[in-house]
Structure formats: structure tokens, C-alpha cells
Amino acid sequence: MTVAATEPRVVAARRRVPRGSARRHIIAAATELFARRGYEATSVQEIVAAAEVTKGALYHWFGSKSELLTSIYRELLAEQTARLRDIAEGPGPVQERLRAAALDVVAHTADHVDELTVWARSAHLLDDEQAEATRRERRAYHDLFRDLVREGQDAGVVRTDVSATVITHMFLSALGNTHTWFRPDGPLTFAEVGEQLVALFVGGLRP
């Protein structure tokens, strides 16, 4: 009786990202897919495939796709808030700190324009609990910026005929809505647009 020789079965192992870097890869993949395809049109399976991780790894770090979206924004907001606090509590005349704070939020936004654009377009899809948590953190950032404006008003270097709250919302809203009309193939970069917004902001503060 002839026994057919059999070759050992070789199963190619699917490539996986190194242990410890899965979370970073998930966030990067999700950001790229959300920006290119939209949050609603992107599936969890597409995210894990692009990130080269298992679905279990994604759910280890994030309870859902909406939690992933929220985490991307909240981490950027926490970073932005820490930077603003360092500037607000730092040395120098208040008018210089105000200008530095405005330039810093522009620079940070330009560095993370994809993530922030995804958030601006998709935040309304979150459930009430997630939305309220991010609103609280966003209000804390606004309050910190507003207090710096008020310090300028108290020092006599910022106009007082407009409330600090209106000044703050005017600048941050203008910057936050830039994604609705900015075009990467236009004559200005996002950073240049932001710098022009800062010029208008600083110029409009003078008493």
C-alpha cells in the first residue's frame, strides 16, 4: 500500500503591531478612516484591519466606536487645556500671554486638523452621556481662555465694551469652524489662516 506523502500545513501568521503600541495604532487608523470615509461609514472591522490589531484589542481599549471617537477628541482637548494653563499662568504681560495663547491653539489645531474636523462633523452622533462629558471639558477650556481675557480687561489692555465671554466665543468659534470652508489646495495653509485669525483677534482686543 502506498502512503501519499503529506507536506506540513503552514499557516501564515497575520501581521500584528507590537504589544504596547496597539492603542496608538487604533487611534491613528480610526482618525484616517473617519476623516476619509466619515465616522458613520467606517466599521469597527475596517479600523482593526487598518490598525493591524484584533477586534479584542480595540475593545480592550475602547468600549465602542463612539467611545473611540470621544477619546480621540478628549485627549487632544486635555493636551490643549494643559498648554493653555501653562501659558495663562506663566510670566509676562497679559497681552503677550493672550497672543501666545491664541497662537498656541492655532498651532495645536493645525497639527491635529484631521482629528478635530472629524469631531466637529460627528459629535452630534454621540449619546447624551458622552456628549455631556466632552461639553464639560470644553467649557473648562473656554473658561480658562475667558479668564485670561478678563485679566487683560482688568489690566486695562483689553477692551471692556465687549464681554470676555463674547470675545472668547468669537475667536474659538471662528477657529473651530474653519474646517467648513478651508481648502487645502487654496492660497493659504491652515496655519496661515489661523495666524490671520489671531491678527484680527489681537487687533480687536485693543481698548
Describe this structure in words.
Helix 5 packs antiparallel against helix 7, helix 5 runs antiparallel to helix 9 and helix 8 packs antiparallel against helix 9. It contains 9 helices and no strands. It folds into 2 domains: 52 residues, Arc Repressor Mutant, subunit A, CATH 1.10.10; 137 residues, Orthogonal Bundle (Tetracycline Repressor, domain 2). The protein is elongated and about 55 Å long. It is mainly α and 207 residues long.
Low-confidence stretches: 1-14
* Percentage of residues in strands: under 5%
Name the CATH superfamily assignment of the largest domain.
Answer: Tetracycline Repressor, domain 2
Query: What letter string, H or E per element, gives the SSE order?
Result: HHHHHHHHH
Structural class: mainly alpha
CATH class of the largest domain: Mainly Alpha
Fold-level CATH name of the largest domain: Tetracycline Repressor, domain 2
CATH architecture of the largest domain: Orthogonal Bundle
Rounded to the nearest angstrom, the radius of gyration is 23 Å
What would the keywords be for this entry?
single chain, elongated, 207 residues, mainly alpha, Tetracycline Repressor, domain 2, Arc Repressor Mutant, subunit A
Secondary-structure blueprint of this entry?
Blueprint (H helix, E strand, L loop, with lengths): L21 H16 L6 H8 L3 H7 L3 H24 L5 H18 L1 H10 L5 H27 L9 H13 L13 H16 L2
Helix pairs in contact: 1-2, 1-6, 4-5, 4-6, 4-7, 5-7, 5-9, 7-8, 8-9
